[in-house]
Amino acid sequence: MLERVHLVVLAAAALVVLGRRSPRVGAVAALAATLSAVPVLLVPRALLVPALLGPLALWLGARGRRAPRGAWPAAWSTLALGLALLGAVGHWLVPPARLVPPTGPWAVGIRDWVVVDSSRAEPLTSDPNDRRVMAVRAWYPVAPAPKGREVRAEYLPHARLAYRGIAESLGVPALVVSGVDHLRGSGRTGATPAGAGPWPLILYSGGFRQGHHVHNTELAEELASRGYLVVGVGHSWEQAVTYRDDGSLLTLDDPGVQTAVSRMAAERGPGPVPTSQELGLLSPGARGERIAAYLAGVPNHQFSASLWRADLDAVLDRVLEGRGEVGRFLQPLADPERLGVMGMSFGGSTAGQLCANEPRCLAGANLDGTQWGEWFGEGFKTPFLYMSQELDTWNDAWYGGAGLDYHRVRVAGAFHGDFTDGFHSTPLTRWAGVLGPIGGRRSGEILRAYVTAFFDRYLKNEPAPLLEGPAPFPEVSHRRGSTSGERHDSEVEEGVLSEPSAPSPPVVARVR
User: Could you tell me the residue range of the domain that residue 64 belongs to?
Assistant: First the structure.
């Protein structure tokens, strides 16, 4: 619809510019120029300013100056054409944010809570009376609602305030990201859960600093529509969007928080993170010593890894034990015998830590996160999916103990941010190098396909041909098993079981 508006704008303005200087057509063109601001209403509002001020300035100029008959309509329509082009370019560079709807047989319900863990003091603030606070969102299966009766949930809880936290974490003006304050997914607020449960439970943890607990809403809604209960857990003070139960944002103004977050963000460790290629040349004992020595040089990462895992533990205990408002609602929906964990970036590391130490975890997934926390040793046995851009990190050494139940998926053309919701990927963000050339829709399609297949296989015990045969995505390289240990397992690529490809050249991995 919005693209058609732009076509009408361009056609109406061009009629006059090309010689038909009728005042009526000029008026239509001017009106069309104003309408060209409509698409901008759905993108960051900074782009709205020139589209609205242009017609106003032209109208004021026309009133204050006499001109030959027909001159001002022509000038008016010329500016209309310029404004239409401006709106079209803005619409293309930063298109309206939209979430891809889920494809499963169930509709999706959403509930939000704020959990206060009174047993833990908040270590990041300067107030000794503060207690650890975690924002929680659940996505769960519900029966489809009659048309017209759906109340879709905000993408971000307390969205009109929350986008300011995102802007602060990115270091940009709030207007630049204000388009998310209107965004809604497919989930229905407070919908009654479907009665076919209990459902496999998947905990979700987002990324550090720019991340938040709803950063993979498209993935969470897809899983919920296919019969999963997904619970996103926020990590206060170290993510872009965290808040108290009264809706007030937890900002970075506290001196203690500023110190902790800045130390974490600036910490780079004792040189580059060892790669899987480097670690694969060492004996198991030497490999563990090398990893432990590096971890000793990143105490702030280790501190946050422990803190985030404790956040997941606190929410998991409440859900499975039925404690508090969140537990009373979610315990009947959750199957404690089918527990999985997934996370993006630092949250993916948190997923790995929980699966290594929580016997009830049957499967875990890390979406482009470098692993931190307590070294697992060689005994990691939990089925695990590690999806990433084309980087050689040390994660194979952490997850390789799972053998053929370790799935390593590389996505060509993807950058770090492409493992979040696809609407973040725009021509502007790709041009600036923030996100990769693959495009958010494509990377999101790949992400949803592999994560869903993985949990279907390991939490539902259902066939997952995507994990066994040729990848339908040419951008994807899928390997089963580790190449960092003494054993080298086969690789699944283009439908043929072959020996692993040559190791990638060493690169400096992210420390984030």
Answer: 2-93
